[in-house]
Amino acid sequence: MEKEATNESNRVEISDAVILDIAWRAIAGTAGFHSMSSRFYDGVMDELSKNFGQKRIAGMNVKHKKECLEINIYINVWYGTKMGDMARELRSTIREQMKLMLDLDNVRVDVHFENIYVQGEEKAVDADKESLDETEE
Predict the structure, then answer these.
(1) Per the record, a Pfam family (predicted)?
(2) Which spans in the chain are helix H?
(3) Is the pLDDT assigned to residue 53 strictly greater than 90?
């Protein structure tokens, strides 16, 4: 699915791959970020996407809704990360980048915390799949 920006003489199509790439770069530079969460759903969708030549990034999806563009991110964080602050920072950074690079104004970003990792330990602490969506700000 693609987002379209139009004016009188030009039509620009923005693929989900571009949207995901911009969001990924914003996420990767955020303090406390450990990794994207790989879920069973992502594995199934990755296989389907390959068949259709679409780019996917595990732990992220884009939904095109009538009222906005919705980006859901599923991440793992380091123990000690202030998740509320991180969710606000991610929302702000992703929205700013979408406005700056793609001229998209109405972007909703939902942050889902899947696991907490402790430095020096290999196994994640279950974060009870905590989710901070924009209605909880």
Answers:
(1) Asp23
(2) 16-28, 40-51, 83-102
(3) no
